[in-house]
Each structure stands twice: as C-alpha cells, then as structure tokens.
C-alpha cells in the first residue's frame, strides 16, 4: 500500500496526552495515518482511515523521501491486507529530525527503526 503526503506531523512526547508519542499525516487523497504509543505501553497503535489496530514488532525505515512501515504477517489486516505501507513525502517541509525522535520513542522496545537520513 502506498500513500502520498506533503507533511508528516510528529510529536515525540505530548505532555497534555500523558507523554504519548504521535506521528500522523493526511494523504493527498484524504486518507489519514496515525501511529501512537504511550511510554508505559508495550504495543503501538496504528490507525489508517479511522480503523485502529494494536501492533507489536513493527519495522520502520525513514528516509528524506519516504517512510516505510512493515508489519508482521499476522497484522496485515491493519494495512488492509498489505504487509507494508509506504508513505511518500511530496515536499520538503517535514522536520525529519522530529520524525526520527518520535519514531524512536514509539518503537523503543516494540520494533525497529532504520534511518537512511
């Protein structure tokens, strides 16, 4: 599955939301993507088009042009049957350092991050 977005919005630690780390975007076709985790949780919540899923063992690859999310075979329903979600960045306005910090907070102990920055 692939979506295109102009910006990724990242919050590594939201004090108003019990220190939840959040990464989200809206695609150029109106699709919503949301990846969140509270620091005391062992799982990650992924929401795609208002359909939430709880996941463990994500692999995320971040580069200047894309975010690639890979889920385990048993979690493919979170991505509507696919095992990967590629989010293509169509502009350069995203703060990639903030995205990387947010992903480290989300994936710490629950998945892996590959940074190609």
Characterization of this structure:
There is one protein chain. The protein has one domain (2-115). The strands form two sheets. Strands 1-9-8-7-10 form a five-stranded mixed sheet, covered by helices on one side. The chain has a five-stranded antiparallel sheet with strand order 2-3-4-5-6. Helix content is 10%, strand content 46%. The protein is mainly beta and 117 residues long. It contains one helix and ten strands; from the N terminus they run βββββββββαβ. A hairpin with a 5-residue loop joins β2 and β3. It has one helix spanning 96-107, and strands at residues 2-5, 9-14, 20-26, 32-37, 44-48, 51-55, 58-62, 66-70, 84-89, 111-115.
Largest sheet: 5 strands, mixed
Q: Helical stretch count?
A: 1
Give the topology string: H per helix, E per strand.
EEEEEEEEEHE
Helix content: 10-25%
Low-pLDDT residue spans: none
The secondary-structure class comes to mainly beta
Strand residue content: over 45%
If you average the pLDDT, what whole number results?
A: 95
């Amino acid at each position: 599955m692939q979506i295109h977005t102009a910006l990724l919005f990242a919050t590594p630690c939201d004090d108003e939301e019990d220190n939840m780390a959040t990464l989200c975007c809206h695609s150029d076709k109106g699709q919503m993507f949301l990846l969140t985790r509270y620091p005391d949780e062992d799982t990650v919540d992924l929401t795609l088009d208002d359909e939430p899923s709880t996941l463990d063992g994500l692999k995320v690859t971040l580069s200047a042009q894309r975010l690639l999310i890979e889920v385990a075979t048993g979690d493919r329903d979170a991505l509507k049957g696919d095992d990967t979600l590629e989010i293509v960045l169509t502009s350069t306005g995203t703060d990639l350092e903030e995205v990387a910090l947010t992903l480290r907070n989300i994936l710490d102990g629950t998945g892996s991050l590959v940074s190609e920055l």
